Amino acid sequence: MALAMSTKPEPSATPSRKRAARRSNAAPTITDVAREAQCSPMTVSRVINGEENVREDTKQKVLGAIAKLNYVPNRAARSLAAGSQLRIALLFDNPSASYLSEFLMGALEEASRRDIYLVVQACENVAEAQKVIRKLLDGGIEGYILPPPLCDDQSVLDLIRSSGGIAVAVGPGRATGSHGAVLIDEFQAAYDMTRHIISLGHERIGFIIGNPEQVASGQRLEGYRKAMTDAGLAIDERLIAQGQFTYRSGMVAAERLLGAAHRPTAIFASNDDMAAATVAMAHRRHLDVPGDITVCGFDDTELASSIWPELTTIRQPIREMTAEAVAMIARVHKQKPRASKVKPEQLTLAYQLIRRNSDAGPSLAASFSQPPGSP
């Protein structure tokens, strides 16, 4: 397996960098990556091969060094020259750091097992994604893993299909015609989490929506609404706030919900980043979590268990989803040239509700129901 990572290039290079580039015509080596990441070449090798016995912070440094140096193992380069290695691109559009780490490692592990060349490319918007895809297609990249919101855009999918590429979506999307999709039941997962919060005794439950451009955001919102309705609870639109799946948007949404005259006794955020921001905002307002307010998230990224209190959340099998996407592309590739006639796969994986320390019964519900300053 080979890994090539790319992010948006810097607008300009300094003169010293240009001179350094002229001095070194050789491709970066594993030793260069190790030096940049301040670790051993063996550790770099372990990360590239998807081994588990590497600390998360070290893994992140190695991945960052690989991206910065555009490192490609020599063995992979030889395989590419011979045309014997399947080449896949994993495209992403500014997800959370925790989500991206899980997303990337799942693809790395499966690509390593299958000796697949993997390119990781950031795309800030659809227009940039189209330019990147054209360049990758010209470079012989055959398979494309499309997370939201790229799997929501029909033009992206049409470009890949019309050029003979293989496209697999990770997560639900609006675009049709992909070779497959790997997802969870977003609606049911949000429904189950809301029912769990209700079972603790909460009735005033706030909800923070994710990026409105992503299908999953709407499905999670609908799961929350259905659970509230099925429990016979009124849905107070004032307790629903718009977020963007980012930590900062979660801070803004949580500030609005916690500053309301009739605060919720629990808040369910559409991902862990926004849930973590909600916990931080509660602490800023001198509210105890979960003593004063319950906070729950979605995804079960590393962030969920690295804050205090650790988050109750929905575990989405992110690593498994991207690993399955790589395997799905490999299966379609083996069936060429009749791949266009192959029936698209849709694989729905299981999720799990993980209960930790951020939820409890609404012990202060009575005081929350009073406007600030009321006796």
What does this structure look like?
This protein is of the alpha/beta class and 375 residues long. It has two domains: 2-184 and 318-350, Rossmann fold (3-Layer(aba) Sandwich), CATH 3.40.50; 186-315 and 354-368, 3-Layer(aba) Sandwich (Rossmann fold). The chain has 14 helices and 13 strands. The strands form three sheets. It has a seven-stranded parallel beta sheet, with helices on both faces. Helix 2 (30-37) packs across helix 3 (41-48), helix 7 (126-138) runs parallel beside helix 8 (154-162) and helix 9 packs parallel to helix 10 (215-230). It is globular and about 60 Å long.
Give the helices and strands as they follow along the chain: EHHHHHEHEHEHEEHEHEHEHEEHEEH
The CATH superfamily of the largest domain is identified as Response regulator
> Overall mean pLDDT score?
85
Unreliable runs, pLDDT <50, ≥5 residues? Answer: 7-24, 75-82, 365-375
What is the CATH architecture term of the largest domain? 3-Layer(aba) Sandwich
Integer tally of domains: 2
Reported for the largest beta sheet, the result is: 7 strands, parallel
Shape: globular
Structural class: alpha/beta
- Count every helix, treating DSSP H or I runs of 4 or more residues as helices: 14
CATH topology of the largest domain: Rossmann fold
Which percent band covers the strand fraction?
A: 5-15%
Alpha-carbon distance between the two ends: 66 Å
Give, in spatial order, the strands making up the sheet with the most strands: 1-3-2-4-5-6-12
Care to count the β-strands?
A: 13
* Whole-angstrom Rg: 23 Å
Helix content range of the residues, please? 40-55%
CATH class of the largest domain: Alpha Beta
